[in-house]
Design brief:
Layout (H helix, E strand, L loop, with lengths): L1 H34 L2 E3 L3 E2 L6 E8 L4 H18 L3 E11 L6 E12 L2
Antiparallel strand pairs: 1-3, 2-3, 3-5, 4-5
Length: about 120
């Protein structure tokens, strides 16, 4: 009997952990659905020497413009950092202001040596 009780308690604990894990996954998925995500294009060179451009977009919610902006800025920064430099934004164009529409940010930037 003691062995069966121990096995039963172990099974109950595993079941409880499994239920907690499922609840956590469901909560994360629900939050991700509400927050939305941003996606960015690859960085490309413009027709002006030393000037690059990257665009990002995000949908869903009031802060979609901020996610699009941050994604574009982050891509520019990462691009320059991979080259041992720092980014400097020259222009940014944004679109989409209405809720639940796609918001976009297009950033032109340069890479400069780090000081």
């Amino acid at each position: 009997m003691p062995g069966q009780e121990r096995a039963s308690r172990t099974l109950q604990r595993r079941s409880s952990l499994s239920n907690q894990a499922r609840a956590l996954v469901a909560a994360v998925a629900a939050c991700a659905g509400l927050v939305g995500c941003a996606s960015a294009t690859d960085v490309v060179a413009t027709d002006k020497p030393g000037i690059y451009t990257v665009a990002a977009s995000a949908a869903g919610g009031r802060m979609a413009w901020a996610r699009a902006h941050e994604s574009a800025i982050s891509e520019a920064r990462d691009y320059c950092e991979r080259r041992g430099m720092q980014s400097s934004v020259t222009t940014e164009t944004v679109s989409g202001v209405a809720m639940m529409t796609v918001h976009a940010s297009s950033v032109n930037f340069e890479c400069h040596p780090k000081f």
